[in-house]
Amino acid sequence: MVHLPNSIKEKARDIKLVVFDVDGVLTDGTLSYSESGEEVKHFNVKDGVGIKLLNTYDIVTAVISAKDSAPLRKRIADLDIPHFYPACKDKWEKLSELMNELWVEPNEVCYVGDDVIDLKVMKRIGLSITPADGFWLVKEHSDLITDAAGGKGVAREVADIVLGSRMPLEEAYIKAMLPEFEKTINI
């Protein structure tokens, strides 16, 4: 992770809710199908550690996706992500409902998206992040572009940014080194 400007650190310090898109963020965006036509998705274990760390430090995580699939539902269950909204047609409407439910203000939300469907949300929240290979227009409207490409550790990098704004990362990772950390979910 490169050195972050103070303005990004300040925004990250206020974050109480981190919301992830799926295809192009938690995956590389590739659509693969088995011989029987079942969708296959590839997720990065580093992202699982990042999401788990956020939850461990009481930073709420959510996934809002335009698509739905059995592999995605399995991954969400494995990571015990508390707020999951698949097949969502209006991400801003869903996020607004979630913010009201959690009593979270827009400036306390970090949203990670990669394509134009995410712009409506990204323009209205506190910290907008896109992967290194996010769509060019999304990059223009993002507060930060990760070093990682979609599906290659974006969520872990986001967790490092948010947690690193509050404490030294070495301190944050102490909890990840405890035996019970991996036992609580399938990272």
Automatic annotation (TrEMBL):
Task: Please give the superkingdom of this protein's source.
Answer: Bacteria
Name the catalysed reactions. Answer: 3-deoxy-alpha-D-manno-2-octulosonate-8-phosphate + H2O = 3-deoxy-alpha-D-manno-oct-2-ulosonate + phosphate
CDD domains associated with the record: HAD_KDO-like (cd01630)
Entry binding sites for Mg(2+): D21, D114
Supply the EC number(s): 3.1.3.45
Q: Which UniProt keywords apply?
A: Hydrolase, Lipopolysaccharide biosynthesis, Magnesium, Metal-binding
Q: Which cofactor does it need?
A: Mg(2+)
> Its Gene Ontology molecular function terms?
3-deoxy-manno-octulosonate-8-phosphatase activity; metal ion binding; N-acylneuraminate cytidylyltransferase activity
Residue positions binding substrate? D23
> Keyword Hydrolase, does the record have it?
yes
Provide the GO biological process annotations.
lipopolysaccharide biosynthetic process
First-level EC class: hydrolase
| The family this protein is said to belong to | Belongs to the KdsC family.
Tell me the function of this protein: Catalyzes the hydrolysis of 3-deoxy-D-manno-octulosonate 8-phosphate (KDO 8-P) to 3-deoxy-D-manno-octulosonate (KDO) and inorganic phosphate.
> What does the annotation say about its assembly with partners?
Homotetramer.
The protein depicted here goes by the name 3-deoxy-D-manno-octulosonate 8-phosphate phosphatase KdsC
Q: Which organism is it from?
A: Oleispira antarctica RB-8
